[in-house]
Amino acid sequence: MNPCVLTLLYSIAVISAVHHSMTPLELKHFFGTENKDKVPVYFLDDNKKHRRHVDDGFKMDFLIDGVMETFVLRNKPHLFSEGYHIMENDVELMMHPLKDCVYEGESAVRNGTRIGLVGCGNKMNGMVVADNGDYHLIQSHHQTGHHVIHKRSIESIDHECQFDANEDPYPEDREEIAMKSMLIRMVKDIRRAEPHRRDILTVELAVFADDAMWDHFKKMYGKAAEENMHTFIMAVVNNIDVLYTQRLLQPRINIKIVRYEILKNIPHLMNARKHSNGDVDRLLDAFCQYQNEINPPNDADPRHWDHALLFSGYDLHRNGVKTVAGYAPVKGMCSGVRSCTINEGLDFGSVFVVTHEMGHSLGMYHDGDNECDLRCCIMSPSVGSGKTHWSQCSVNEMATFVGHLGDDFRPPNCLQDASANEQRMVAFKESEPPGQLFTLDEQCEIFHGECWKHELKDGQTMQNICQMVWCGNGEGVIRTAHPALEGTYCGFGMICRQGQCVGSSQLMRVTVGGWSTWNDRPAPTCGGRCSQCEIRGQIRIMRSIRQCNNPSSNNGGAPCQGDEARGMVCHRDVCNGDSIENYATRVCSRLRDENAIPNTILSGEGMQFEQAMCKIWCLISGSTNIRTVSNFPDGAPCGPGQYCIKGECRPLLCGSTTLAYSEADCPLSVLQTTTTPPMPHVHSVDQFAGKTNPYKEHKKTPFLNEWSGWSVWSECVTYDCHTQGVKVRVRRCLAGVCAGALRERQPCTRPCTGSERPLTTSPPQQTFRNRFIAPLPNRQTNMILRKVDHWGPWSACSVTCGTGQKLRRRENCIGQECAETGPCVMQSCRENKNTWTEWSQWSDCSVNCGEGVQFRKRACFAAFCRGKDSDVRNCYGQRCSETTTRRPLVNRSGLWTGWSSWSSCSTKCGIGQRTRRRRCYQGSCLGDDNEKERCIGSQC
């Protein structure tokens, strides 16, 4: 007889003897129901498995629907983070972390069937996800010693999701998602042909089990409760990770467990009386607040988590309804106190409940509320069998939410911390687009010359570079170069393609920038000559520069930290000449008369201002505002013992030889020499002739000038065919400090190929960047160089409850840090409810005809506010006719929230200030975001 049939007959023979003897608690744990009549068909599988090792893992057989099926499994250690730890009552335990007993794999006989298991030896828990449904594999039952394997019922899990679209804190995302969906439909054939994206985000997860969960496992497993509960919960999380790593979901989400804790002695905040034995709203509030209070605040801390998950043993309920299995704040991911999920954790159906609720936390709505079928997928309102994949709507919704993390009034993206190993990728090939071969800084250097770098023009965002790149020389002048080259990074997961910033179909190598060595003899265009005397009190210096190209930062990698230029004293004398005020006025008058700055009218009056002492400030005609236009010359005085270098005020260090941020930036030759050049002293300008350079004199080794040969010329680098571009060749400095350029450029054009047609681009432009705009200072107080005072008193806390920030300033401060912030902790937010601003006005209707939505916003100026910060209602435009195209309406005017309550008085006794605030949540708002008024402290 067929051995599979024998196994099937054996399994059926023992079914009735097993589940009929189970308690309701065991039935719930093994089958997801307490009713014996609703137990699904199940099989008992021998737990003594024989492993057959293969190259990338091992093979193992499991009884699926009565037939033995072979699976290929691999170890999966990355489910646990490097900072993974197990806690119990604030004590770290040394329980075996199961790192060597976590597996993932796929069926050897059925394509697309995946498996996730956790457990050592015969104590395995896991799930098989197949096209025809999902199968739960539960650890050995004590009566038989066999694994229980059953297919999840085709009926929906008894779970009523509590998602409410009116609680969406960012309802404006819906319009963007709708527009993206329309575009995706237009280009779906192109997308289908694109290679699979492999962007990776990581949710660092803290997993908790409450006292009721612990009591249930003690009743079922006795002394083995801890081990069995640990294995079971890790198996649930492992299969949540399996669902989030599906190919369709982009960016891909990895789950990493940071902390595991059984709350045997429940915190007072989460006591059963506090949440009425499972009231879902109260329990969620309590758990979210508790996990936020104990979470290390620094995202770089290996024990910090991005999201917290509670496995609860309580029967969750709301308003008498007990069909609630889980709950999470809408779009709460990365937002601290709102980044949390609770669920009934007793049975394996919690895999889908948690996956679904975390989907809401990641910005997903219910399928059916969007354009996708409500019956098909994980985000269906009903969590049922076969709903094991993501809809395209869920993919778009999550990508939109994640893409906006870090925007104004949204939390930073806490998920971009995948390891280099996880983000591995092959080296770029010659066929890669030029925008990935040349960073934005390198594109500016190629088109404008050495020391030109990418700068955003005022009002530009990274996505605008696909239409035009602006390059700056660090002196306030910026020029257009060209639209960014094809493939240039323009935002997280985005590249420039045909003048638009679009999603990338490839994983982009994220490169963190590193400094080159200092170049003490840069090209003249980079300041490689001794500065001329122009201002009274100026010292003459020559720049030494380094570049952030070792390697160049790219694709969102962090840029280099520190100064790119230092100033080497190249003359012993201090300059006589015009005052710094007169010099600034000459520059402002020249710019006004030459009309070099379009759309800006300057009065011609200039000055030096303490907000940025090395910038030239010009008065804007007809107003009381001033703005910066360029830098003062290198060596201009900006404070006691401080001088300008490339627009920054730096002290004279290194034995009075170098302008630098710190002694760490001193030239090696200065650090090694025992002789110290004298401090520059005052002479008249006509005495400078014939003086020697002490910097050259104290160098003990000659400058070497040994270049390699030139490389071959590159291909023509250009945005478009038949437009002028450049080709470059490079060489390396083999020894010492080489004089001359690292690169040479030649103009070129690239012929059009095939159906390619040249595009029309605008002629080059030049302007000055508005780095700063400020009110006109009081001449009597701001134009005098003063000594720096000690720190002033701390300001009032920025919030009225919870954790905020306080500020203090130096009253007289020139050219150095003039303000600092520190944390402050006010009363618990539970004791202060009035932390919301008033509601804003309702927005315009989102469409020009038919049914749309309006929303209004308010802002929370505290660490935690109860309630929601947005409100949505339906609106109806004119009736859509056959000739009317229904389209979103774009409101370009600025919209404010209402005002917050007044803060407490800044002083406890006497006259002080109090403030109230509001936020601009759409467009460019007119007016101030804060108001102040006098108040009198009453605690005298």
UniProtKB/TrEMBL annotation:
Keywords: Disulfide bond, Glycoprotein, Hydrolase, Metal-binding, Metalloprotease, Protease, Secreted, Signal, Zinc
Signal sequence, start to end: 1-17
Source superkingdom: Eukaryota
MF term (GO), any: metal ion binding
Residue positions of the active site: E357
One Pfam family this sequence matches: TSP_1
Chain ranges of the Peptidase M12B domain: 201-402
Localisation per UniProt entry: Secreted
GO biological process: extracellular matrix organization; proteolysis
Family matches, as Gene3D superfamilies: 3.40.1620.60, Collagenase (Catalytic Domain), Thrombospondin type-1 (TSP1) repeat
UniProt: Zn(2+) binding residues: H356, H360, H366
Keyword Membrane: no
GO cellular component, one term: extracellular matrix
Coiled coil residues, start to end: none
PROSITE patterns, per the entry: ADAM_MEPRO, TSP1
Protein name as catalogued: Peptidase M12B domain-containing protein
